[in-house]
Amino acid sequence: xxxxxxxxxxxxxxxxxxxxxxxxxxxxxxxxxxxxxxxxxxxxxxxxxxxxxxxxxxxxxxxxxxxxxxxxxxxxxxxxxxxxxxxxxxxxxxxxxxxxxxxxxxxxxxxxxxxxxxxxxxxxxxxxxxxxxxxxxxxxxxxxxxxxxxxxxxxxxxxxxxxxxxxxxxxxxxxxxxxxxxxxxxxxxxxxx
Amino acid sequence: xxxxxxxxxxxxxxxxxxxxxxxxxxxxxxxxxxxxxxxxxxxxxxxxxxxxxxxxxxxxxxxxxxxxxxxxxxxxxxxxxxxxxxxxxxxxxxxxxxxxxxxxxxxxxxxxxxxxxxxxxxxxxxxxxxxxxxxxxxxxxxxxxxxxxxxxxxx
Lengths: 193, 155
Hints:
Chain A is α+β, with helices and mostly antiparallel strands. Chain A contains one helix and nine strands; from the N terminus they run H-E-E-E-E-E-E-E-E-E. In chain B, strands 1, 2, 3, 4, 5, 6 and 7 form a seven-stranded antiparallel β-sheet that branches.
């Protein structure tokens, strides 16, 4: 009566236990991956909404470079232009809250970060060091800017699109990413032409 | 020696305990998957909100251009109706319930690129010295609505 387990019983029980453990580990690992994906997606969302709101505010408060402050064209390079946009940068005069005056400002894509340069005055020549406004936890694959209607007798509208991807060293396949676009029309009317 | 106490678990006990463990594990997995879906939804909703904001800004820009172009009245081109508009259009087109595309530079538009999950409809209703804008962005069965009234305050 007290002979213990047979070899067959032992093998069967080990097999059942093995299946259970493998299954549980699989579930646990997929749950950890899902959690990682959620964290990285939230990072993109946070960084994306921050940088969008930050640039929105500056672009909205732009002033036509017509000599109202400083010399006409000293920030945008062309007199009476509101914005000087290349495919991945934008330079313009905007209201600087800290000094309560209009200063030249530039947003640009440098490497995989969006950076900001502030001028000490209204000229593009005095733009300071580029400071990143996106974290190294995300990489910006693309930052494209288009300005429409920046001409005499018109009111410009700026459209930018950002393609942002997670920069986490823990690899997920595919890496979480987001493409988002918005347009901003300037609040100061171009009435004095 | 009482052999009755040495028989270990009964089958019923085993089935019940396995059932409890399975319910717990499945529950945790369902919460995780819900969490993943919710994050995806948040990201899509954010993109939709920005597309909605863009719709408002484009209409506002049309009003501003009308003000500057002294020949036009302030609400020229902003008649009642449903419209679609690209970020680089200066006027509105009738709504055709089309999906927005992403072009090679990443811009959401109606003319080129690959189709996205988003549709955008801009509805305008004129009142006295006022245009009410409603922008609906539709995606995967969800709708994001952005509303704004613009006025002829510069009379």
